[in-house]
Write a structure and sequence with these properties.
- The protein is built from two helices and twelve strands; from the N terminus they run αββββββββββββα.
- It is α+β, with helices and mostly antiparallel strands and 161 residues long.
- The strands form three sheets. Strands 1, 3, 4, 7, 8, 9, 10 and 11 form an eight-stranded antiparallel β-sheet that branches. A two-stranded antiparallel sheet has the order 2-5. A two-stranded antiparallel sheet has the order 6-12.
- A hairpin with an 8-residue loop joins strand 3 and strand 4.
- The longest helix is centred in the first third of the chain and has 29 residues.
- The chain is globular, with a radius of gyration of 21 Å.
Amino acid sequence: MKNSLIAVCTLVTLFSLSCKAQVSKQSASSEIKAIFPKGELGPAQNFTGKAWNFGLVPNDSTYQTLVGNVYFEPGARSNWHIHPAGQILIITDGVGYHQIKGQPRQTIKKGDVVKCPPNVMHWHGASPESGLQQLYIVPNTEKGIVQWLHPVSVEEYSKAK
């Protein structure tokens, strides 16, 4: 009887440790791995939820390119907006969405590269379950940088097709 009790206790302990390891592994995989500092909180008039911007390459007359990093908290997203010369996004962690006006919403994730064409209305942000980290590149800034528009509705954000 004593040996059976020890065996049961040992199995319960091993099962418990296994479950804790699984939970720890799952939460570690859903956390965003920051490459750059969080930066400044984006203005509420341009974002739903919290999005943090850290500038990497400031605009100047030599390169005429703006580069930075944005971290969107889960559920956060940009307003609809337009870049006169387009924009390139490089997703470095997390899961989110991107949509060009008139097209279905696309799911984006770590390793994806998104090209936002010049003068085309679009938005991007994190999924409800995961944050999103992205590098943005705005080329040819002599044409302009960004024109902010209206917020993305809950229906637009939630609609997969």
